[in-house]
Design goal:
Helices cover 21% and strands 51% of the residues. It has a single domain (2-87), classed as HesB-like domain (Hypothetical Protein Aq_1857, Chain: A, Sandwich), CATH 2.60.300.12. It is of the alpha/beta class.
Length: 89
Amino acid sequence: MNITPAASAHLDGLLRRIHAPHSAVIRLVPQSGSLSLHTDIARPDDVVFNNGARAVLVVDRQVEAIYADRTLDVRTTDEGISLILAERS
């Protein structure tokens, strides 16, 4: 799994808007055939993605393996910015 700079910055902005502590991250969690976002803390076996010096996203190693060929990115729509998992090119 990969994450674009735009997605990393978007997640950093989400954490700042909710006034999350510096140790807080967003976790991708499988749920009913899709992925959901939850605020959490990094665990020792997580794969961690950073925005500069701040960890912004964590995924369990099993989840990372399932989505190894994907890139987390952002897409702007009429409703605003959303995260997408795109196939790596």
